[in-house]
Amino acid sequence: MSKFHARLLELESEIIAKEQAARGLKEVPLECGLLLESIEKDIGLRLGDEAPSDWRGWLTFRRTKEQVDRRLDINLIICRGRTFKESGLFGKHRAGLDVSYGLDSVTEYRRGFDVSPPQDLDHLLINFGSGESVKVFLWYGENIAPYRLIFEAEIQDEPHENMSEAVVEACIWIATKPKDMTLPEFLEKQKDNLQ
């Protein structure tokens, strides 16, 4: 298969996945909730959790929107975070987004406001969609570029282990790629280095 045809298949798969994810779910199967919980447990800290004063690492947070037709759009965001001290003498240290206004993200999230991943912070998005069956998707978000599909699987196939491996691999990409390079450029360079 030529590189051109491989890229077209990849693009078509991404388009189908975006359509399925846009449909959301009428009901959230138990397996979807368990998958998100296992990923959150693997990562360890969630946005707003208490954290050691010098902590830097990965955190998760959920975004849930109810769409007009009563379908649910459930997203789990994974991104870099660091500790911020709440104001006051006895303020706790909390895990916030790894940006200068990270404490604001903690405050907004704890108050129940929707927190979007900032453009300058590469992140991963896990969401679900419906077609013939319920699927889970792992997307990579970078700057204002559209999301790129990294992984997809049917929930009925119990993708917990494969999803965990995909998340780890994607976190490694984010941590090791040069800041002046997009993920596709980085991956293309990695391919060239292996040849």
What does this protein look like?
Strand 5 (123-130) and strand 6 (134-142) form a beta hairpin. 37% of the residues lie in helices and 30% in strands. Helix 2 (30-43) packs across helix 4 (160-176). The protein is globular. Strands 1, 2, 3, 4, 5, 6 and 7 form a seven-stranded mixed sheet that branches. The protein is built from five helices and seven strands. With 195 residues, it is α+β, with helices and mostly antiparallel strands.
What's the short version?
Helices cover 37% and strands 30% of the residues. It has 195 residues and is of the alpha+beta class. Strands 1, 2, 3, 4, 5, 6 and 7 form a seven-stranded mixed sheet that branches.
List the helices and strands and how they pair.
Blueprint: H1 3-23, H2 30-43, E1 45-46, E2 56-66, E3 72-85, E4 93-97, H3 102-110, E5 123-130, E6 134-142, E7 145-154, H4 160-176, H5 183-194
Parallel strand pairs: 1-2
Antiparallel strand pairs: 2-3, 3-4, 3-5, 5-6, 6-7
Helix pairs in contact: 2-4
